[in-house]
Write a structure and sequence with these properties.
Helix content: 25-40%
CATH architecture: 3-Layer(aba) Sandwich
Bound molecules: 2-amino-2-deoxy-6-O-phosphono-alpha-D-glucopyranose
Shape: globular
Number of strands: 10
Number of helices: 7
Radius of gyration: 17 Å
CATH topology: Rossmann fold
Length: about 250
């Protein structure tokens, strides 16, 4: 696993944006796996700035997001569909038909999951998957205990994840209790993974990611088995890791 230590959040965002921009330049029809949460917001902002200044084109790019809440219409300001449009898609030239997020309103959630998984395969898989990390080690919305063999599936969110994400909602009650998420094995099939982390509150999670046994009780530990992972994290998030020896 490669670790890139940055001085702060801005530099983390710049390094991550460069990875994506270079990939899109080398492979204009790349498939990008997208993440939500606070961590990638700066990276998305820099992709928009690069698009405006340098015209990097997303006309042939396809995206698949990691997850979506169940029960929020895509127009809801807290859906991940809205997040992605406001953070990035509305400001670059990616065609709407090439954007994929699970539909959290599909009455047949099992079918939605199967279809999402098929769409990713039909597309030839994901070239680069961007990941954040939950303080409990979740990746996407794969909470502790999720099978490493899981494909896209429905997950019941833990109380701690709902509390962490309640900052975007008016109250904890409004935070959905379930989500559709790519599974661990879906994520592991991505050709390259970039995990972003910033701030002291992620320091324990990064330590466990790198030093725990690979175990379903800490989902992100599976990344130790992936052949091409780069962690881009700032000094605060890496404060428990000696980067030279990691
Ligand atoms: N489903 C998302 C994850 O994909 C994200 O990595 C995590 C951390 O979010 P943040 O970046 O805001 O700390 O939150 C959510 O639960």
């Amino acid at each position: 696993m490669k670790i890139v230590e940055t001085t702060n959040y801005q530099e983390m965002s710049e390094k991550a944006a460069s990875f994506l921009i270079n990939l899109v330049k080398e492979k204009p029809n790349a498939t990008l796996g997208m993440a939500t949460g606070g961590t990638p917001e700066g990276m998305y902002q820099l992709l928009i700035e690069d698009y405006k200044q340098n015209g990097t084109s997303y006309k042939e790019v396809t995206t698949f997001n990691l997850d979506e809440y169940i029960g929020l219409p895509k127009e809801d300001k807290n859906s991940y569909n809205s997040y992605m449009h406001q953070a990035l898609f509305n400001f670059i030239n990616i065609p709407e038909s090439q954007i994929h997020l699970p539909n959290g309103m599909n009455a047949d959630a099992t079918k939605e999951c199967e279809e999402y998984e098929k769409q990713i395969s039909r597309n030839g898989g994901i070239d680069i998957q961007i990941l954040g990390i939950g303080e409990n080690g979740h990746i996407g919305f794969n909470e502790p205990g999720t099978s490493f063999d899981s494909k896209t599936h429905v997950i019941t969110l833990t109380e701690s994840t709902r509390i962490a994400n309640s900052r975007y909602f008016n109250s904890l009650d409004e935070v959905p209790t379930k989500a559709v998420t790519m599974g661990i094995s879906t994520i592991m099939q991505a050709k390259k993974i970039i995990l972003l982390a910033s701030g002291e509150k992620k320091a324990d999670a990064l330590y466990q990611l790198l030093h725990n046994e690979v175990d379903e009780s800490f989902p992100a530990s599976i990344l130790q088995k992936h052949p091409n992972v780069t962690i881009i994290a700032d000094r605060d998030a890496l404060k428990n890791i000696s980067v030279t020896s990691a």
